[in-house]
Design a protein that fits this description.
Layout: H1 65-85, E1 91-94, E2 97-99, E3 103-106, E4 110-112, E5 116-120, E6 124-125, E7 131-136, E8 141-144, E9 149-151, E10 163-169, E11 174-177, E12 180-182, E13 186-191, E14 197-199, E15 202-204, E16 209-214, E17 220-222, E18 225-227, E19 236-238, E20 246-248, E21 251-253, E22 258-262, E23 268-270, E24 273-275, E25 279-283, E26 294-296, E27 303-304, E28 328-329, E29 333-335, E30 339-343, E31 347-348, H2 349-356, E32 368-370, E33 375-385, E34 391-396, E35 402-409, E36 413-418, E37 424-431, E38 435-440, E39 446-453, E40 457-462, E41 468-470, E42 473-475, E43 479-484, E44 490-492, E45 495-496, E46 502-506, E47 517-519, E48 522-523, E49 525-526, E50 535-536, E51 543-546, E52 550-552, E53 556-560, E54 564-566, E55 570-574, E56 579-582, E57 587-590, E58 597-602, E59 607-610, E60 613-615, E61 619-624, E62 627-632, E63 635-637, E64 641-646, E65 649-654, E66 657-659, E67 664-669, E68 675-677, E69 680-682, E70 686-691, E71 697-699, E72 702-704, E73 708-713, E74 720-722, E75 725-727, E76 732-736, E77 747-748, E78 750-752, ...
Parallel strand pairs: 3-5, 4-7, 5-8, 6-9, 7-10, 8-11, 9-12, 10-13, 11-14, 12-15, 13-16, 14-17, 15-18, 16-19, 17-20, 18-21, 19-22, 20-23, 21-24, 22-25, 23-26, 25-27, 28-30, 29-32, 30-33, 31-33, 32-34, 33-35, 34-36, 35-37, 36-38, 37-39, 38-40, 39-41, 39-42, 40-43, 41-44, 43-46, 44-47, 45-48, ...
Antiparallel strand pairs: 1-2
């Protein structure tokens, strides 16, 4: 969502009349105000309203870095000359402050229109109700408070007009330091700016956000104390379009929603302390990916969606190893914080196993797990022994790792580094261990003075690159060095000899000359062409070349040696398991368009097709009764069906491109447990077609110009369809039919694309939109939702506190990614929530002390983490009078409808498919239940101490009890049986007895 621009001439601080998200200003005659929980557009930047007119920033041409460096040097020399030749006479506003000509003092709100340093000489009281106190209207400005305060006229509510202690838009090199800012809507807001520094400030009791960056990059937020924000924007907000910011050493306490709220990427978020805040971190969309930003040393409790960081207070391993190690290590356990660690003596893993009451032989348990960045582990020449299951030292995804002077023996594994970059290992000796050192997906690391002897594998290098191995010794093993799918590594000044099977073994993708480098190394037998080993022995034909259409009947590795034009029904036929076909730059084409099959695979398993392209066939790839096989890095153009998968299991389709197919880019028929990801399907009748297929994952794919992007048909259920982007489809981006349509039929749910037919389980949103707008209603309002959406915070989306307020979803699907509540009505009369399809919320609708109507809603509750049957539910009614629930369906693993301490309500035509309790009614009177249905393995209807209720035409089914009554609900006269009721088992409901109950 972009900020509205005010094109009027400047008249001082004011808010433009425009709407959108947090910036929304009610139009004339509107009722209530709206507060968006998150920006609505992940590809455009959300900004708070500008307090003064903001001109659009024109694009600037970039110029080479070397010219920038030359310019900086010239300016620096000139500056020295000016300072040397001209020394201005200083003036003074305080005994310790020396003022230069471009230095100003201020003691009141105002505009900062010239470059320079602005010293706050006394506390500023900003008695403003809109706009900014200090408006930065120039680049190269420093606001220096030296402990002075800037105080607004708040507290403000979460609505316009907004106020700001400091506001800058489109400015560079702005610094705010040493200030105490309170009682504004925003403490500091920087929009479309670069090089902003917010250092050493105290920012508290600012309603919306303490520090707010939007489309602002290469800035530093350091050493600040932020508290008392109440909106879901959070204490510190990094908005869309921001990049390369450093958020360091901040203390964030006692905020109402989120500590640090992140929509940006490429940032460094480290050494921050966040507590007494419900959600320490929240990341949204791509900003939460593991490589989106970097982080270390954050002390926090709750992390929502930020895969690149961990909270040290809760980052303990979920296994028997619950011992958190300090700087001096005497036993096995986990390192949970950065720092220097020293092993004080030999560690025997058997003693460790006894101490924790668990035998290592029965589970994969490392001795020392490194679970923090920037760790230096110095074993001080001590030994770790008898790790009978797992590795002696294990680290996963932790940067800045250094391990040295360690001895390891008699263990299943020595040291394992997984997903590590830039690690340093030195002076490590490993004996009598199965695998000495293992690197998996670990890059740019340095290992020197390392050796492993008398094991199965001395050094294993898998899926890793740019690593350097120096002064190593791997002898007496079965394999000295085992290189698997790894290139670009350097081996020098080492020894790999006297290993029983081979001294250095390289798999097919690691074998060729130039793939890695070796120098000054002694080694004997190898199959790799890039080594200096004395005996390079070619294996028995690693690749079998194919230069014409043929049948593969034996396992092995095959590759095309030229383009093939097919005139046969099947060009390449695979009838053997354990086959890998690589096509490289070559392709398969059909001589007669629309006939034959490019690659036909049947009745086999463990087949991989890598990098193959097909053109003009009826089937590019046809798989029938195939198990655990893959099609990767391929393409199809002009085929009728790109990939056709029938009666198969565990098929992976990854990174393929399908264009201009006659029918379907990918057609999956009666198949299960497959994965289709990272692929593109364009300009076909169907992009992806699922027919009678279950438990498959369709994730991260895209397509444009199809008739239907993804079509889920027939009995295709329990598939995970998520994070796909289909647009520009002539009929629908997503369509469902049959059993594939219901709210609970498929998993996943957030996809990009807005033309949807019958897929109630799916939230299809525009690629340029973001989360659903969330609101707080304090006056009568009507909120209409026009598209699908998602909610990612896990708290309360819509709070209704006013009478006569209606929420109408218009049968759009809203999916919650982290649970929470969609709507809560509190002390409301005449409220309505209707036509909503809600999925993934833990407590979707709450009605408290209200007379509210819930009509035509479909609810799928996320109850996976529930600890009790009543913790999560579809609709919860508390202390309410004259409420109505009509034609509402709930699917839940806990409870469907929960009604407590309420009276004179109506529940009609509703359906609960709940694992534990369909309808829970407690201390409730005078309520009519008419035409309701419960299907539950537990209890259909559970009533306790509830009287004077009437039941007519209801059907309560439960394996434990159809109807269960407790307390005053048991007697013959406690409630009224109006007839036509059914229950599978009646337990204690005397008033409900009859021929069908």
């Amino acid at each position: 969502m972009s900020i509205p621009q005010n094109n009027q001439e400047s008249k001082g601080p004011e808010s433009p009349n425009a709407s959108g998200g947090w910036n929304e200003i009610p139009s004339a005659g509107s009722k209530g105000y709206k507060v968006d929980v998150t920006p609505s557009n992940p590809f455009e930047q959300q900004k708070p309203p500008s307090p003064v007119p903001i001109a659009r920033k024109t694009a600037q041409n970039k110029f080479p870095l070397k010219y920038l460096l030359i310019a900086i040097v010239v300016i620096f020399i000139a500056l020295i000359a000016v300072l040397t030749l001209h020394k201005p006479t200083p003036t003074t506003t305080a005994p310790t402050t020396s003022i230069k000509p471009d230095v100003y003092t201020m003691s009141a709100c105002g505009a900062l229109s010239k470059p320079g340093s602005y010293y706050v000489s006394s506390d500023i009281s900003g008695n403003i109700t809109s706009g900014s106190c200090l408006y930065v209207n120039s680049s190269n400005v420093a606001i220096i408070c030296n402990g002075k305060s800037i105080t607004g006229s708040g507290p403000f509510s979460n609505k316009t007009p907004y106020t700001y202690a400091v506001y800058a838009s489109g400015k560079n090199n702005v610094t705010v330091s040493g200030c105490t800012m309170s009682d504004f809507s925003y403490g500091i807001a920087a929009i479309n700016s670069t090089g902003v520094k917010v250092i050493g400030n105290k920012v508290y009791n600012n309603t919306m956000s303490g520090v707010y960056l939007s489309n602002t990059s290469y800035s530093i937020i350091s050493g600040n104390k932020v508290s008392g924000t109440s909106s879901p924007q959070g204490a510190l907000y990094l908005g869309y379009g921001s990049f390369g910011n450093k958020v360091l050493n901040n203390t964030i306490r006692s905020n109402g929603n989120v500590g640090i709220n992140i929509y940006s990427s490429g940032d460094n978020v480290s050494e921050n302390l966040i507590n007494s805040t419900p959600n320490s971190f929240a990341c949204h969309g791509l900003s939460g990916l593991i490589n989106a930003s970097s982080a270390r040393g954050n002390i926090c409790t709750v992390n929502i969606g930020c895969d690149f960081l961990s909270c040290t207070e809760t980052n303990y391993p979920i296994n028997v190893s619950q011992i958190s190690l300090g700087s001096v290590i005497n036993s096995c356990g986990t390192i949970n914080a950065p720092g220097n660690y020293h092993v004080a003596g030999d560690i025997n893993a058997k003693a460790y196993s006894k101490a924790v009451g668990f035998l290592n032989e029965s589970a994969q348990v490392p001795c020392i797990t490194i679970n923090a960045p920037d760790v230096h582990l110095d074993c001080e020449s001590n030994n770790i022994t008898n790790v009978t299951s797992g590795y002696a030292i294990y680290a996963n995804s932790e940067p800045g790792l250094k391990i040295d002077y360690c001895g390891i023996s008699s263990s299943k594994g020595g040291i394992m580094l997984k997903n590590i970059t830039g690690a340093v290992l030195s002076n490590v000796s490993i004996f009598n261990s199965s695998t000495g050192i293992m690197l998996v997906n670990s890059n740019s690391s340095k290992l020197y003075d390392v050796n492993a002897e008398n094991g199965t594998i001395g050094l294993y290098v898998g899926f890793s690159t740019l690593d350097t191995f120096s002064a190593f010794r791997f002898t007496g093993n079965s394999y000295g060095i085992y290189v698997n799918d790894s290139i670009g590594n350097v081996y020098n000044n080492g020894v790999a000899t006297n290993n029983s099977r081979i001294d250095l073994y390289a798999t097919n993708n690691s074998i060729k000359s130039g793939y890695s480098l070796m120098s000054d190394t002694q080694c004997g037998l190898t199959d790799a062409e890039w080594t200096t080993c004395t005996n390079v022995e070619k294996p028995q034909l690693k690749f079998y070349p194919i230069n014409s259409c043929s049948t593969i009947g034996y396992e092995g590795n095959y590759s095309l040696s030229q383009n093939i034009l097919s005139s046969s029904s099947n060009c390449i036929t695979i009838r053997s398991s354990n086959v890998r076909l690589s096509c490289g730059p070559y392709k398969l084409s059909s001589q007669t368009r629309g006939t034959g099959t490019g690659v036909s695979i049947g009745d086999v398993k463990n087949v991989t097709i890598d990098g193959c392209g097909t053109t003009g066939f009826k089937y590019g790839y046809y798989l029938n009764n195939v198990t655990n096989s893959s099609i990767i890095n391929g393409s199809s153009s002009g085929d009728t069906f790109g990939v056709y998968i029938k009666s198969s299991k565990g098929i992976k389709v990854d990174n393929i491109s399908e264009n201009s197919v006659g029918n379907s880019g990918l057609f999956m028929n009666s198949s299960e447990y497959g994965i289709v990801k990272g692929s593109s399907f364009n300009s076909g009748a169907y992009g992806i077609y699922l027919y009678n297929s279950t438990r498959n994952g369709i994730m991260g794919n895209n397509g444009t110009g199809d008739g239907i992007g993804i079509y889920v048909n027939m009995n295709s259920t329990n598939n995970t369809v998520a994070y796909n982007l289909f647009s520009g489809s002539s009929n629908y981006d997503y369509a469902c039919s049959g059993d594939a349509s219901g709210i609970a039929s498929e998993y996943g749910g957030i996809n990009y694309g807005q033309k949807i037919s019958d897929c109630m389980w799916l939230s299809g949103i525009s690629p340029k939109s973001g989360p659903v707008a969330c609101n707080s209603f304090f006056s009568p309002s009507s909120y209409d939702i026009g598209t699908d959406g998602y909610y990612g915070i896990g708290a309360l989306c819509n709070g209704v506190y006013s009478n006569s307020t209606t929420i109408n979803c218009n049968y759009n699907t809203i999916t919650a990614t982290h649970g929470g509540t969609f709507a809560k009505f509190d002390n409301v009369k005449g409220g309505i929530i209707e036509n909503c399809i809600l999925r993934g919320f833990t407590t979707p609708i709450i009605i408290k002390n209200s007379s509210v109507k819930a009509i035509n809603d479909r609810i799928y509750v996320n109850a996976t983490d529930a600890s009790s049957p009543l913790q999560y539910f579809g609709i919860g009614v508390y202390s309410s009078h004259s409420f109505t629930i009509s034609n509402v369906s709930v699917i839940s693993n806990t409870t469907g409808f929960l009604i407590e301490n309420s009276a004179s309500g109506t529940v009609s035509g509703s359906n609960s498919t709940s694992r534990q309790i369909g309808y829970y009614v407690d201390n409730t009177t005078g309520t009519l239940f008419k035409g309701d249905v419960a299907q539950s393995p537990g209890i259909g209807l559970s009533m306790s101490n509830s009287t004077s209720n009437a039941f007519s035409g209801d059907s309560f089914n439960g394996s434990v009890a159809g109807a269960l009554c407790i307390g005053t609900s048991e007697s013959n006269s406690s409630n009224t049986n109006s007839g036509a009721n059914y229950c599978s088992v009646n337990s204690g409901c005397s008033w409900l007895r009859g021929p069908d109950c």
